[in-house]
Design goal:
alpha/beta, binds flavin-adenine dinucleotide
Length: 467
């Protein structure tokens, strides 16, 4: 058993868990559900307030898109139906041009598949409720992890309000404390720990489009949304873009992705007039729907986006990283949480199957996930460029049509990359390789056809000349 930290101003009794999870965000809470369901002793400790009480805490984005991978993991925790009941279905993209015209681009042929927009606070609350319903799971809030002991292993927490310290020891400590993980920071000080971080040149700022006052102001006089809720809205503007996702209660979360620096950057706008002029120029159709856009712009902070890759994901089978703590990615494939949810399944399965050999379990977990987490990190960065530059171009639209046509003709052989990532659970790196292979085959096939046609034409010409 562990002992309480002697230096604390008012030490609470120490506790012991079989698994200590640090950070009750999306992945920490889901992991607690999966382990708790299996009867494991789990303690889940979070620095923020309990999401089950009071208004949602400010997070890194108001809503997010959950797709096949996330849904599969949520299903395992018995939460899929509850999550979908609170989500808005988005079977495609809705592209807005500068003149305010829109074009719907389905994600899959016949709109069979959709991603699902859900409020982050609602999702976190559902996960926390589910975890709390497991008798072997203890939850603690308002306690910030300030140190980790990799050898015992244990973690020390400081209460956010009282300053009281306590230490929790466990057989295994799992860090799910997000992209700026303090536990990963401690690992970085160890020898042989590989680490890279890459900041995106663009940041993000959220604006909320409030629900319509009454049905007459609503989109197609239905519900309370001011735009079509069933699509991921994109305003592609080259170096920058805005997206908007519907929330179930009728609002939209609009997110500006702009460069931090430069001509059309966040830092280039000083006064209200320049903010309004920029919004009017790039998003004329939305400005009328968000009357307080300039006030919101001034009030809301600019978020930063980082890609983090590191290895190994565990120290001696005692402390492990999961979710954004292991692999923060930029949000342009809508996969950060989905990927973290897959991690939860892989870690839980590895632990269940290892027969108590934690080291082997964590090696297995990293082997299952690392390559694929790196792949989706790269794909997500590339997708920023695709969404902001290409979605409105003819070349992009043609390519999408070919992608969908090939899928229709050969559904088992050809699956578009976006579909593999969002609507299947094919591991990310396998999906990336397969998509590249599909296009290589297509270009090769097209080359052969062109060659044969050329040869045929040449032969016909020669025959005609002889005759
Ligand atoms: C703008 C934006 C849009 C996004 N959109 C999508 C999307 O559409 N689809 C998708 O799948 N993903 C999306 N993501 C990514 C997604 O938000 C993350 O991948 C996901 O939240 C990671 O979950 P996590 O549990 O690993 O980390 P987090 O959700 O960050 O949770 C970490 C938790 O740890 C707590 N914590 C941190 N430090 C400590 C500490 N010292 N002690 C105790 N607790 C601590 C935090 O308070 C938090 O609750 C988006 C991200 C951004 C920024």
């Amino acid at each position: 058993m562990s002992s309480a930290d002697a230096t604390s101003p008012a030490s609470a009794p120490a506790t012991r868990a079989s698994v200590l999870i640090v950070g009750a965000g999306l992945t920490g809470s889901l992991l607690a559900c999966l382990l708790g369901e299996a009867g494991w002793e789990v303690e889940l400790v979070e620095r923020r307030a309990d999401p089950r009480v009071g208004p949602p805490q400010a997070g890194r984005s108001i809503n997010l898109a959950i797709s096949a991978r996330g849904l599969q993991a949520l299903r395992r925790a018995g939460l899929e139906a509850a999550v979908l009941a609170q989500a808005v279905r988005m079977p495609g993209r809705i592209i807005h041009d500068r003149a305010g015209r829109t074009q719907f681009q389905p994600y899959s042929a016949g709109q069979r598949h959709a991603i699902n927009s859900i409020n982050r606070g609602v999702l976190n609350r559902l996960l926390a409720e589910r975890a709390a319903a497991c008798p072997s799971v203890r939850l603690a809030f308002d306690e910030r992890c300030v140190a980790v002991d990799m050898n015992r292993p244990s973690a020390s927490f400081r209460h956010e309000a009282t300053g009281a310290m306590r230490e929790v020891s466990a057989d295994l400590v799992v860090a799910t404390d997000g992209a700026y993980s303090v536990i990963r920071d401690s690992m970085q000080k160890r020898e042989q720990f590989e680490y890279s971080q890459e900041w995106l040149h663009a940041g993000y700022k959220e604006l909320t489009m409030a629900p319509a006052e009454d049905a007459n102001d609503a989109w197609e006089n239905e519900g309370r949304w001011r735009m079509d809720p069933n699509g991921l809205h994109i305003w592609p503007r080259g170096e920058s873009m805005m997206i908007a996702l519907a929330n179930a209660e009728g609002s939209f979360t609009c997110t500006l992705f702009w460069p931090h620096e430069g001509l059309h950057s966040f830092n280039s706008l000083a006064g209200d007039a320049s903010i309004r002029a920029r919004l009017e120029r790039d998003y004329p159709d939305v400005l009328a729907l968000i009357p307080d856009a300039v006030e919101q712009y001034r009030a809301n902070h600019v978020g930063h986006m980082v890609t983090v890759k590191c290895s190994p994901w565990h120290v001696n089978g005692k402390v492990a990283l999961l979710g954004d703590a292991a692999h923060a990615i930029v949000p342009f494939f809508g996969q950060g949480a989905n990927c973290g949810f897959e991690d939860c399944e892989a870690l839980a399965d590895s632990l269940f199957e290892c027969g108590g050999d934690w080291h082997a379990a964590l090696d297995r977990y990293q082997e299952l996930r690392k390559r694929h987490a790196d792949a989706i990190a790269d794909l997500a960065r590339q997708n920023f460029h695709e969404m902001s530059h290409h979605t409105a171009t003819l070349r992009y639209k043609l390519r999408k049509q070919v992608d969908h046509l090939m899928h229709r003709l050969m559904p088992r052989v050809w699956i578009p990359l976006y579909e593999m990532i969002s609507f299947t659970t094919i591991p990310y790196d396998d999906a990336r390789e397969r998509a590249a292979r599909q296009w290589r085959w297509l270009w090769f096939g097209a080359g052969v056809v062109v060659g044969l046609v050329g040869l045929g034409a040449a032969a016909a010409y020669l025959v005609a000349r002889k005759g």
